[in-house]
Amino acid sequence: MPEESVQWLTDSETRTWLALWSVSEWLPTRLDEQLKRDSGLSHRDYFTLAQISMAPGKQISMSELARLSNISASHLSHVVTRLEKHDWVRRHSDPHDRRTNIATLTDEGLEFIRGAAPGHVSEVRRLVFDSLDAEETEVLGRLLNKVLGGVSPSAAARG
């Protein structure tokens, strides 16, 4: 794209973009540090367990889990293998469609996530919400959902 046709960011947009970029880089790092310190688990592994725990029946297809996690099927397979070694998740074929693999949270996995969640939620609160009042939290949520609408896989499919 020729430089003269680029609509450059305004000063305000640049400051906002740099703040968003910094948060998107540093927040996962800080959450990963807390989870590893308190639970011995990476943020990626915790997020995967949490997604399964929130799914109906505490089970979800591997393809849907990969989509929600924004990782490849191959990477997700490695994550789930680590979780299976702890007996937190088990993988099995969907009885209605043998081509589909399902990840199911075990009782041990549910117990683990319930133990890890309080520390994680406290850290999320400390890092994100303690500096915001209720109105700012609502505005932030609305604004992030607007941005998410343009970057999520469903938005990319719409073109």
From TrEMBL:
Query: Known InterPro entries for this protein?
Result: HTH_MarR-typ, MarR/SlyA-like, WH-like_DNA-bd_sf, WH_DNA-bd_sf
Q: Where is the HTH marR-type domain?
A: 13-149
Q: Which SMART domains match?
A: HTH_MARR
Q: Which GO terms describe its molecular function?
A: DNA-binding transcription factor activity
Gene3D superfamilies from the entry? Winged helix-like DNA-binding domain superfamily/Winged helix DNA-binding domain
An individual GO BP term: response to stress
- Record PANTHER family: MARR FAMILY REGULATORY PROTEIN (PTHR33164:SF99), TRANSCRIPTIONAL REGULATOR, MARR FAMILY (PTHR33164)
Annotated protein name in UniProt: HTH-type transcriptional regulator MhqR
Organism for this UniProt entry: Corynebacterium comes
Q: Which gene underlies this protein?
A: mhqR
